[in-house]
Design goal:
elongated; about 80 residues; single chain; SH3 type barrels
């Protein structure tokens, strides 16, 4: 597992489809790396990137949630 945190934002306008798509290759390069995901409501999740499901949801393991003005929350597996 890498110690660097990858911060990225994926656009829902660009679907992750096609067997050899550039987006799939980029996602595959992030597997098992720690990443920070920022939601549109301002919440941030930091965890280990595991996969993307059929609904194009990112699946993170060992995740913590960060919100402005609150203490750090731990989300169990």
């Amino acid at each position: 597992m890498s110690e660097a945190v990858v911060s990225t934002q994926f656009s829902s306008a660009t679907p992750i489809v096609g067997p050899d798509s550039v987006n799939k290759a980029k996602l595959r390069s992030y597997l098992n790396h720690r990443m920070k995901v920022t939601c549109s409501d301002g919440r941030q999740f930091v965890g280990v990137f595991k996969c993307v499901d059929y609904g194009q949801n990112l699946i993170l393991a060992d995740t913590t949630e960060h919100r402005k003005g609150t203490k750090q929350l731990y989300i169990q597996k």
